[in-house]
Amino acid sequence: MKLLEDKIAKDGTVLPGNVLKVDNFLNHQVDTKLMDEVGKEFARLFKDEGVTKVVTVESSGIAPAMMAALHLGVPMIFARKHKSLTLTDNLYTASVYSYTKQVSNDISVDKRFLDSNDKILIIDDFLANGQAVSGLLEIAKVANVDVAGIGIVIEKSFQKGREMIEEAGVRLESLARIASLDDEKVEFVKD
Amino acid sequence: MKLLEDKIAKDGTVLPGNVLKVDNFLNHQVDTKLMDEVGKEFARLFKDEGVTKVVTVESSGIAPAMMAALHLGVPMIFARKHKSLTLTDNLYTASVYSYTKQVSNDISVDKRFLDSNDKILIIDDFLANGQAVSGLLEIAKVANVDVAGIGIVIEKSFQKGREMIEEAGVRLESLARIASLDDEKVEFVKD
């Protein structure tokens, strides 16, 4: 998505350790017009898949998931993150490891909101090692829902998330794919 | 807002302890069409106030804040919640007490995103005792930004948040105002 790549090139900042800082338009301050276009693009890509719900993880996934779901005309669910719970009878849960924070947290979705008639589109702001997506795929499996695909705003293609998703046989659409952040420069994957 | 009141009456559940559960359309699963209407209504109410940014707190405020900001044509910022930090040089922070969880957390906004030319609209999903709003008002004061007003999706009018905001002299617009949840029934404030 050219609009998004241009925005990343112009306003993104590369920090040491392969960190791409985009908190000025994606995950702290949000460029709402851009997010609307992001949502439209996800809707265009997945419009023929029979998506019944869009699912993401709080908090940074909510804005793009909201816009994708609005343009698809379906509800959006954001999985909650929390420390491991003892009472989980009414929840689908999965454990998600954060490489950045080096801790595991549970994510959960209330069982009332997913059933075997659902076909979900998973949306997230970033794909790096694929831990959050992996947790949502685990929840989808236990809930017995179909997965139409995964939509990512920014993919770090040099990390292993894409490989994991391809191995799982799930369709992946990333609106911007970053080949490298070496020398503090953003290099996109060539089409 | 009739559409919202009807939705609360139909799909909200009252739990003991004056808890209104609306996780099926507002703060876990989100009715995206309703949220679009909520955003339009906030934009209509505040369109003449010169709002430059919409500010909320993660996570449940993000969806209504996103839609309000989109319809106002401005960026949206979601303050981050976290344990108290030691390094806060680049952040505006405030402490927010949660009556539900009985803990205090800090909320923060990066200093790059607010300056004295800004006029913000504060949006949140719920207003009860006004702790989150109070934290955002504190940040606005330290950042020296004007506050155009506060937009709330559901106000529990029997708790003290409204009084606090009125005492602060800030305009408050709540799309649904709940007078009472006694006997596990939702009673709205009469116009």
Automatic annotation (TrEMBL), chains A, B:
UniProt-listed Gene3D superfamilies: 3.40.50.2020
Predominant place of localization: cytoplasm
Binding locations of xanthine: L20, N27, K156
EC numbers, comma separated: 2.4.2.22
Domain Phosphoribosyltransferase, first and last residues per copy: 36-157
Known pathway: Purine metabolism; XMP biosynthesis via salvage pathway; XMP from xanthine: step 1/1
Catalyzed reactions per annotation: XMP + diphosphate = xanthine + 5-phospho-alpha-D-ribose 1-diphosphate
Residues the entry annotates as binding 5-phospho-alpha-D-ribose 1-diphosphate: A128, N129, G130, Q131, A132
Keywords assigned: Cytoplasm, Glycosyltransferase, Purine salvage, Transferase
Superkingdom as given in the UniProt entry: Bacteria
An annotated GO cellular component: cytoplasm
PANTHER family linked to this entry: HYPOXANTHINE/GUANINE PHOSPHORIBOSYLTRANSFERASE, XANTHINE PHOSPHORIBOSYLTRANSFERASE
Quaternary context: Homodimer.
Purpose: Converts the preformed base xanthine, a product of nucleic acid breakdown, to xanthosine 5'-monophosphate (XMP), so it can be reused for RNA or DNA synthesis.
Cross-referenced HAMAP family: XPRTase
Similarity field: Belongs to the purine/pyrimidine phosphoribosyltransferase family. Xpt subfamily.
Full protein name: Xanthine phosphoribosyltransferase
Species whose genome carries this gene: Lentilactobacillus curieae
Gene giving rise to this polypeptide: xpt
